[in-house]
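Practice problem: predict the structure.
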Amino acid sequence: MINYGMKSGDQLSQKSIFIWRSIQSTIWLIGVFIVLNLIFNPELGLHLFWNILIPVAPLLLIVAVGIWRNVCPMATTALFLRHIGLTKRKKLSIPQSGKLNFYALVALFIIVPLRHSIFDLNGLATAILILSLAVIAILLSFFYEWKSAWCSGLCPIHSVEKLYGLKPKLELPNAHCNQCYKCVNPCPDSTPGITPSSSNKTNYHKLTGLLTIGAFPGFVWGWFQVQDYSGTINIDQLISIYTFPIIGALVTSIIYLLLKRYLKKRILTELFSATAVSCYYWFRIPALFGFGKFPGDGMLIDLTGSIPGWTIDVVVIGFTMFFFWWLVLSKRHIYSWAVRPEFAITNNKINK
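Answer:
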């Protein structure tokens, strides 16, 4: 196990805290820069957010989900009040935690198709979405302890973190939590080998795990079968943007349920995780460089006149092979995303 910047007792040194706070502040300022551009320079803002930041995010979750959990600008925003001690620090119940996880996944399934009609094309709308989520994150973190309500609860990306972060190769320090208050159980950051189905204490937990693993590959595939729409939103557009993702999600969910009879849960989770992220980059990389199914949609730069199409095919196949090696074939180290800090002592008892 590799511990970066850790002292005995799993506590960060002051130097390491300064380094992590500097990185978090830098990433947060980049996030502010993107939001400002979404409002005042939407063409640049949309490219920065949807065509640079978001395409990089799945790869980061695969290879270093602990880094993302430490520097996510939304998490930095949500946890600021907790860092300065201005929170009520309530503890979520297990049923509440399960409901938040389920609502987060539903929110993801609702928001992502709307990119085709609203968010991919409208910088102000995307900025409003980000700012609205930030307000919700701050409010939840004001009332509830540490990462429980937002980062490990209602954040729409959290289910994807657990799906893609199956095989961390190293453990980083937890750069937010200075002590462990067991605000959520199991803690996604500190539980070795966590998966979307690790929490099965309520029906909400079970359903969220099932949909995250089973539905997500088909949902990703279906999203890329729909083009971006401009102009006024109408019912036909809404039906179009949701039909393929829903059909894809249903198909892969059925396949997942059938395969559960024959494959171990861990292996099946790895296969579906690799399929989902491979499907994403199979379509997203060509689109970024002008070779997409719908020319112009999600394009960062047009290279169609500069490089042959087969070079993109080679890159895409290489990404797919990498993801299946990393998530399915490589040795599984029983690591957590981050090293758990020492347990807090409350009322003269160790909170374990």
